[in-house]
Design goal:
Number of strands: 9
Bound molecules: guanosine-5'-monophosphate, magnesium ion
Number of helices: 3
Order of helices and strands: EHEHEEEHEEEE
Helix content: 10-25%
Amino acid sequence: MSQRPYVIDTMISAKTIAARIEELSREIHDEFEGTDKLIVVGLLRGSFVFIADLVRELDLPIEVDFLEASSYGDSMQSSREVRILKDLRGAIEGRDVLVVEDIVDTGHTLNHVTHLLASRNPARLKSIALLDKPSRREVDFRSDYIGFEIPDEFVVGYGIDYAQRNRNLPFIGKVRFVE
Ligand code: 5GP
Ligand code: MG
Ligand code: MG
């Protein structure tokens, strides 16, 4: 696939991400302490690194499940129509659910997914996003937990791709086109 040439500038280092995840995991621990019915739901594919690091900081009995919603495809444009490409394996009725997302941008994806999951009557439903771009919001949605608020830049790394590349970078970087 041909791409315009670009470089990646570090925006949030691996160390800073790890420190923030430690803080967030303490808050989530306080929120869900005492429950034995928590399911942590990762939104594929961008959250796979975040959920892996987050659950390993959580000293709680949890299950892990995944859901895939369509978003950008391979372009840099957000699509307002959200489709479920892969649903959860398990039922969530009566369970505690924590949805884990990479970025909240326009808000359409997490807004749609949380409404869908709420319709299945979980006991408790919370969401966490590593990154939030509040300036881009098109629907009134706010994640319960947020790692970092960032400006309107296209980011990659730590699970997040540009045309399926760069997910394996251990930090969050911003894409800068050259020439
Ligand atoms: P929303 O529905 O909130 O507009 O978009 C959420 C999804 O868009 C994110 O889960 C992510 O997949 C994608 N997205 C939003 N901002 C960025 C970005 O800066 N870089 C990349 N690679 N994807 C993004
Ligand atoms: Mg995503
Ligand atoms: Mg993507």
